[in-house]
Each structure stands twice: as structure tokens, then as C-alpha cells.
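Might you be able to review the protein record set out just below?
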Amino acid sequence: MNVFTHPGRFADDARRARRFWLAGLASIFISLTLSMSSGLHPVLIFLAYPFLLIGLPLWTMGRAGQRRLKTLPRPDLLLNAELKALSDKYALHHYAPYSGGVFDHLLVTPAGLIVIVTSDVLGPVTCKPVNGSDRWSSPSNFLDRITGVKPSIGNPSIRATAQVELASSFLTADKTADVPIRGLVVFTQNPDLELEGCTHAAVPLEELRLAVKLLQDEMSEESSQEEARGRMLTSDQRRRLNSALSPQIAPVVPRAVPAKR
């Protein structure tokens, strides 16, 4: 498998976390200054509270973001390690920009495209259909989310659907619009999952290789059932797609496995 990793993503995350930390620190400093100056005018103590209420969460989120970037394994490296046994017919793109969007992780396979979104939520994780949409949940409280110990899970289905739509527009522009596309949610911390009819497949990291194989089989079967010519990607088409996504990045072959958590 060839891997293309676009630079800058984690540097951007680090800068964002630092901005939160600095903004929070500045707000806390202003709050303390106003509090100490309240002897000059009592109204200053009331002005200090908003800065404190805003600054403390910002500072905490910034520190939590910095800590997570330093302690958690990078998701792109984890995916590389799990999928490194795939042949050169496969290419994995990390953070490739396209048409104003960014692919989190895009696997180009002979049978089609698999877009992957990751989550480092610890779990347990559940996904149930509610009123026609997926509802994800993972027990946590406000303090856990603010401190970054256990962030909110959000809605991985929405993220995966957006990635599938981005991949669809990418194939349309390349005039290979009939190629199958699948979305896959991968939980890098291997939590317990309970899924009930969710829009996209979801697996813990340790089951990623099996999930990719099953999605491959599903896409191959879908292509074989077409009345017209099969929709498998040829080697020329795969090279063209890889070149379009990463024109200035040389592919690498993943070998080293990240340190165990």
C-alpha cells in the first residue's frame, strides 16, 4: 500500500490549541486585573466575571488540546500500521484537500473508494437510528468534555456522509462517477461498540482490516451486478486519482507500527 500524507494538519491543530490557551490565559489575566482594581470602582468586579467565565474554559480546552496532541497516537499512523499489509494496488491519502474540503482519510482500492473518519472516544459507544438519522452517544459529563479527558463524540455519521459526498464530487470531476464509495468510522481507542442500523459501517481499530475487506467484497459484488461494464477502478484510473489528490507528494510504504498505548 502506498501512503500520501499532506503536511500541516497537525501543525494547524497545535496552533489552534495554542490560540485557545493564549486567549483563555489573557481573559483570566484581565479578570484578575479587574478584580484587583475593584477598589477604584466597584463596577469593575462585575466586569471581571465575564472574562473569567470565558477565559477559564478556553484555557482548559487549549491545555487539553495540547495534551491530547502530545499523548495520543496520530490517527494516520494508526491506520497506516493496520493497513500496511495491503498491496500496491491500494493507496491511502491523509488530509488531502479537494475543492474547498479535506479528506480525513481516503483509501483508493481496485473496487472503489473508502472514506474513513476517526474518533478517539473511549466508549462505550452506541449508535441508533432516531427519526431517520443516526444518534451517537458515549457517556461523559461537562467536566470530562471541557478538560479533554473524555470529549464529546459528536456525530461521526454526519462527518462520514460529508466525506462520501466530497468523494462523489471528486469522482464526478474525474468522470468516474459510477465507482462505488463507502464510508467507514474507525474508533482508534478500541471501545465497545453497539450499532443498530447506522448509516455507515463503524469498527474499532483492531477490526479495520476485516472491515476494509468486507467493504471491498461489497463494492465488488455491486460492480459485478451492473448490466453495463463493471465499475472496478483500473490501474490507470487509480494512478490518475492518486496524482490528482497528491500531485506533489511522493508515496511512502508504511512499515513501523506505532508504540502501544
Notes: The chain has a mean pLDDT of 84. Residues 9-71 form one domain. The chain has seven helices and nine strands.
